[in-house]
Amino acid sequence: MSRSHTLKNTHEENRIFVRRAAIALIFIGLLSTGLIVRLIYLQIIGHDHYSTLANNNHIKIAPLPPTRGIIFDRKGRVLAENTPTFSLELIPEQIKDMDDTLARLQKLLEIPDEKIELFQKLRKREKRFTSIPLLLRMSEEEIARFATVRPYFPGVDIQARLVRNYPYDVLTSHVIGYVGRINEEELKSLPASEYRGSHHIGKAGIELAYETALHGKSGYAEIETNAQSRPISTIKTIDPIAGSNLYLSLDIDLQKTAYDALDIYNGAVVAIDIKTGGVLVFASRPGFDPNPFVYGIDSTSYNELQTSDARPMFNRALRGQYPPGSTIKPFMALAGLEHQAITPTQRKFCPGYFQLPNVKHKYRDWKKGGHGTIDMNAAIVQSCDVYFYELALALSIDKIHSFLTEFGFGEMSGIDLVGEKPGLLPSKQWKRKVRNQSWYPGETVITGIGQGYTQFTPLQLARGTATLANKGNVVNPHLVDHLVTNGVTSLPPAPEPKILPLKPQNVDTVTSAMVSVVHSARGTAKVISRGIDYQIAGKTGTAQVFTVKQDAKYNENQIDFKLRDHALFISFAPAHDPQIAVAVVVENGGHGGTVAAPIAGQVIRQYLEDKANEN
Amino acid sequence: MKIELRSEQLDPPSLIGDILRKLHIDVPLLAGLLMVTGLSFLVLYSASGQDIQVLVRQGARIGAAFVLMTVLAHINPYQFKRHSLLLYGMGVALLIAVLIMGEIGKGAQRWLDLGFFRFQPSEMLKITTPMMIAWYLSETALPPRWKQLGIAGLYILIPTLLIAKQPDLGTSILVASSGAAVIYFAGLSWKFIISVSIVLASLTPVIWHFMRDYQRDRVLTFLNPEADPMGRGYHIIQSKIAIGSGGLYGKGWQGSTQSQLDFLPESSTDFIFAVFAEEFGLIGCIVLLLIYLAIICRCLYIALQAQDTYCRLLAGSLSFTFFVYVFVNMGMVIGILPVVGVPLPLVSYGGTSMITLLAGFGILMSIHTHKKFLAS
User: Fold this and answer.
1) Which of A30, B43, B137, B170 is the most buried (most CB within 10 A)?
2) CA A21 to centroid of chain Cα atoms
3) Which H, E and C letters describe B288-355, residue by residue?
4) Is A308 a domain residue?
5) Pair A193, A322 in one domain
6) Active-site residues of A: which are they?
7) The domain spanning residue A169 has which CATH number?
8) B336 and A8: CB-CB below 8 Å?
9) Is residue B58 assigned to a domain?
10) How close is the nearest chain B Cα to the Cα of A419, in Å?
11) Share of chain B residues as helix, strand and coil, in percent rounded to the nearest 5
12) Per-residue model confidence as pLDDT tens digits over B163-200
């Protein structure tokens, strides 16, 4: 194994090494001398100076944490606030026998072991003279019980602290999110000077997305202390800068209506103010109570939340990806018109199924006997599948993909929340890249009715509908309407406005078909047209959870609840002066017209009535 | 015959000596290590606020690390040489795995969770990188030529960049210097060393460009700690006060007001030297430094005594890197180097660096105690 042409000269190598080691030693000696010189400079020459500073370190720096910004809904109702609560706190430095003290406290106030453990953990992280909470949110009774025996507990005291509170708990859990204790990892990445004295940080939702604005900046006070670290006087104070208050576009009444309307179902409702892009409703059911997260949720409850079948921690509106089913049809129709793949009056024959040339497989229509000869309006109103199978094929997947992408399908909306899912709008490139397969015509066919790979989030459905209602003026959904910092109002950054070049008559054609879905005798969502004096444009959808075999029948009553179809509904109103767009997804809800549409109807009605009352 | 006689004379005729020799333990080196770890317990007890738990945990780690050292000391250095490439390759593969998992997970990732314990692959590279370079260069004639230098440089650059990307500046500096030390000991020409130093100095703005914000912050803080006394500069200022107020004799064990009153952050880990300096003063610092230097001298002696190029280069690098460790930590604590996350070897609280360091000493002992008696 001769890697080199030169022969190894062991003696020479040895000689080199000895010389190198000697030089290294000299180098090490020099650097060490450098260290010692510096130490002499600090410890001998600078000794007096630093001793004075060390003594002046009896001037203690006490952090002054800022008050976290308050979150309001569009009508100024408080969604997240800081409420004073009383907590039992211990100063380790002043407690002689910690174990005994803890044992006595545990007996007196029936404190669970878990809280003692948490306290021990915190104690290790904090300094000995800091006050460390053992019990947060003491009840009146606990306060009274402790107050009587307080003299027997030196170093233990009741302190008032501001604790984050979410008065609407489950209703806002997926919008506002929650704050929780800063963990070690977060501690490392946070700017130390801005977070000095802060114990909580936004972990989810608006609390996380607007953490910097909500938190503000810590200040500090220089306090002179005596040798026992007792404060004597305050020398200097740098006031903290309070966090900004956030005003959301969310309407908590409307949110409650939507959440309650979902009733026994899991699902999501998103409503957007079309004119501003402000999100009015952002409901995901089930929610969870965020308040326990603030003061430390116990592991049993946390596990329950994590393992529950209903997945209450899952933000369906933001992260739920559902096949859009027939709700894609208005957009398909518009794509057909814009690309001149079809005209509104052109008729197609629906025999109840569709076949690709030379292929046996039958793509069935939901209506067994078929819809006969129908035009676009009828195809949307009756939700004819065959019409859209053919239209999709005539358009090609490339055109479908590029057209629907413009409406925000298959990409993140950019809403001011963290963790949004992009959904999936399939394309040839996507399939090649992710699955390494070529695209089949059959896949274009089923994309036409929103099945196959296609998956949208409820937020995307609402956004796409709002953009359609807005005649191609792309709507950018956002939750925070404005921020108020120290009395100064500012607006969150807004994306560049974008207008899709749609022909007005095409939008009108689709809109009037969607109006017929709600207001005509054969419409699939006619139930919600009763008793209203304005028009709603809508489209129902039913998304298969599992595939029915070629010759089998789908019978809702016979299959497991979990495998029932998802019910969807998209809508906007009033049809000719659109104000609000609503998307509803009801998991395992069955048919869109029966379950999903009434929820949207309720939200729309309440919003418009409310608006009329305001004026 | 003569040799056997000599070794007979060298051996201490005691039972302990016998056992230690059987265990392949180098006594002077062990003595040095025990002295430093002994001091570590003293300072830790004080710095942790008299927390016995901390000592127990640290004791367990040290125990485990000493066991590992003994195990490695038993292995013939030939085995290390033979497996250098494999170990290095594994280390780099693990680094990539950590990086990918970090991409998938959230943000910075240095750990690989093996279920029963968490493993930091970058630590492994502190040893396998010099192994790799030593193996590569020992296969060729020395001093190395340009091509070999280029390849060796690449072997160093790969793990260094991967670790810097984690981002873990401290470890990447140590890995780079451990590899560079091998090349230096192999006889890298001085012209090259000087020109590289000049190039590196002129590349500073480029490096600055690639640094993370928090790393830039640290450098800026180092240049002017007073600019942000409540934030980034806090460490350095408080650390200097602690050391300076210690004076010549120190404030005595457990007498440090700076760390006792918790003005000094991270007093048990990266900044433990400040506590030591405050409590034991300049004299204590010099003693500690001398013990470190004694360890380093013993290591270099082992390197000089080593019988083949691989062992010599590896031992030289491990000795030198140990000094870099000490210098970088002390340098940052006394404010002559920017704050990079490097613990004080064998003293700071924490397990990972302890394990790697003692593994390195285990290899040194293996090199020293497995010599074949070639001489006649």
Assistant:
1) B43
2) 60
3) HHHHHHHHHHHHHHHHHHCCCHHHHHHHHHHHHHHHHHHHHHHHHHCCCCCCCCCCCCCCCCCCHHHH
4) no
5) no
6) 326
7) 3.90.1310.10
8) no
9) no
10) 12
11) 70, 0, 25
12) 888 777 788 889 999 999 999 998 888 888 888 888 88
